[in-house]
Amino acid sequence: MWHRIGAVCYVIWGLLHVNAAYMQYQFGSSFETGMAHGRLIQNSWHLLFFGVVAIIIGVFRNWKNSRAGYWINVINLSVVDIGFILFVLLPYLSIMSPAILGPAFWVLAVLFSTLGYLKEEKTP
Prior knowledge:
By secondary structure, the protein is mainly α. It is built from five helices and no strands. The protein has helices at residues 2-29, 35-60, 67-89, 96-99, 101-119. The longest helix is centred in the N-terminal third of the chain and has 28 residues, at 2-29. It is elongated and about 55 Å long.
């Protein structure tokens, strides 16, 4: 049961990041062609990629309490959200209320999937 709660949190995290990728793409598209435009579009690509991976692994691997799925999503989300916390949230570069949702679902996903990983039968 715990791993399924974690899987749902991974999917929500992924959906938040797919939405963030879309918003970032729209914002980046408003810039003239140049380095800032390119970097913003690249960032939207990264958000989209990590979000889609979190959703796919959450649905097809974490839902079944897969050992590989556990590690893929723990590492995937941790890399993304630790960077976000260090470089955006801590320097107060974003409004905290909507921005904290990603890290909150990251913590919940890791917590519940770890409970499932440690206490329940795993699949390969």
